[in-house]
User: Which sequence fits this backbone?
């Protein structure tokens, strides 16, 4: 049986980077196994936020490898992501991992996959997982039509709420991490 997990949404907006993820882990297509999984976390002394969608065990392996790459390249997010993607794609065992990562710091937002992709969005918004397209659509609309009314954190939270209302593999137990561009602290 396949374990499904999640919706992850990330945005850079108005001097802030924010990432949100839900807490649901589903076994197959019928049973919710956990409501409170933490799929968004801080890495590299809190300067990097990463979120995963896919198999939980595979994602933990990728978190560990990505954090090791961050240490190796002294926090250079782009270099660490490229090196992880190269290793992930080139290693016979790692190629079997079923997960995707969103990673960000105060300057950069990237999607990293096992097929070698390292993608930086044009509009500062990315989403992955079973509810990713719902969150992406909601986030883009909120960013476009809110003007200066909403912060990155508010958009990230609202986009996940929208996905949770629509996607059966996404719940309302939302974890949110943010990085202010002026300060590297969690708000």
Assistant:
């Amino acid at each position: 049986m396949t374990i499904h997990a999640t919706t992850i949404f990330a945005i850079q907006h108005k001097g802030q980077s924010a990432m949100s993820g839900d807490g649901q882990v589903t076994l197959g297509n019928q049973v919710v196994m956990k409501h409170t999984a933490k799929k968004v976390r801080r890495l590299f002394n809190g300067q990097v936020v990463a979120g995963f969608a896919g198999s939980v065990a595979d994602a933990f392996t990728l978190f560990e490898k990505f954090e090791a790459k961050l240490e190796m390249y002294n926090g250079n997010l782009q270099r660490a992501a490229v090196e992880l993607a190269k290793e992930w794609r080139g290693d016979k065992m790692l190629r079997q991992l079923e997960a995707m990562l969103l990673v960000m710091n105060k300057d950069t937002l990237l999607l990293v996959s096992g097929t070698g992709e390292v993608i930086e969005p044009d509009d500062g918004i990315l989403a992955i997982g079973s509810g990713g397209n719902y969150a992406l659509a909601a986030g883009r609309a909120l960013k476009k039509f809110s003007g200066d009314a909403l912060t990155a954190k508010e958009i990230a939270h609202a986009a996940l709420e929208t996905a949770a209302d629509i996607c059966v593999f996404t719940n309302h137990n939302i974890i949110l991490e943010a990085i202010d561009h002026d300060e590297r602290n969690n708000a």
DSSP finds four helices and twelve strands in the chain. Helices lie at 56-72, 77-90, 132-146, 152-166. The first strand starts at residue 3 and ends at 4.
